[in-house]
Amino acid sequence: MNTIRPCGCKGVRTCLSCESDFHIAKPSLQEEFQQLEPWSYCVQCELLQPGWDTVRVQEAHEKHIKEEGLPLPGILVQERFLSAQEGTQLIADLDALPWDISQSGRRKQNFGPKTNFKKRKLQLGSFAGFPRSTEYVQRRFEEVPVLQRFQTIEQCSLEYDPSKGASIDPHVDDCWIWGERVVTVNCLGDAVLTLTPYEVQHAGKYNLDLVPQYEQELRAPLLDEEQLARYQGKVLRIPMPNLSLIVLYGPARYQFEHSVLREDVQERRVCIAYREFTPMYITGEDQQKGDPVRDKSQLFWEIKASI
């Protein structure tokens, strides 16, 4: 079904509602991934350790043998990035703004320019900055070494509702407009990010063919074929605890597809995704197109009180 359905899904994207209403049979990604060799990221080791269940892997940290861990450059999980009080207030502030339906059982609040990934066209559109109530989150990025000089040009709140089977299918974030660092702040609920090696189908998918233009500027160099072979046949599980910060960059960002399985959403989950420009739109050939967006991204607006 290529048309947009009442629930917001279209194409291969589905939720429990449209699967029931339109008799759509959706294969289980979890069952597919569980046929692979599971490894979970231990936040304390900063290494992948054998096992599917991320909670059990964290609990077994004292038994981990460093030499047996599997490294993957380009992962940061910072627990307690937000305090419990900040998380509660942030959810209240987000819920004071309107939510729009999205695909796969999600809702969203999107603040950023209009983008056409296929045609590689950027428009300022109605972008006028970000909610003032979220400003401190962006300011706090300056305290994280890997996020130095990160300038947000898109901020997207995402709500995952388990009653709708909310999820996000495996993908690589677009490489034409979104820069290296893929940032997520968890405001409510625990979840897991599942990574699998991306087997290139054609160079243009996800606009990955543009990466060589700025590959020398990456914070973690991409893996060669021999290094990538270590991850074949494996599924990698990254914990996303409530109130935490997760950053993908380098190999984890470009050479693996990431997804959120519906089975890993056990309660309402709300996160905020942050994206930066690629170098072409900051200092490169498309700087003039990017400057109006970067100017607007300096602005934070107050929510107007209802009368």
UniProtKB/TrEMBL annotation:
The keyword Nucleus does not apply. It comes from Drosophila kikkawai (Fruit fly). The keyword Chaperone does not apply. Its cofactor is Fe(2+). GO terms for biological process: demethylation. Gene3D superfamilies: Alpha-ketoglutarate-dependent dioxygenase AlkB-like (2.60.120.590). It comes from the Eukaryota. GO terms for molecular function: demethylase activity; dioxygenase activity. Transmembrane segments: none annotated. Keywords: Dioxygenase, Oxidoreductase. This is Alpha-ketoglutarate-dependent dioxygenase alkB homolog 4.
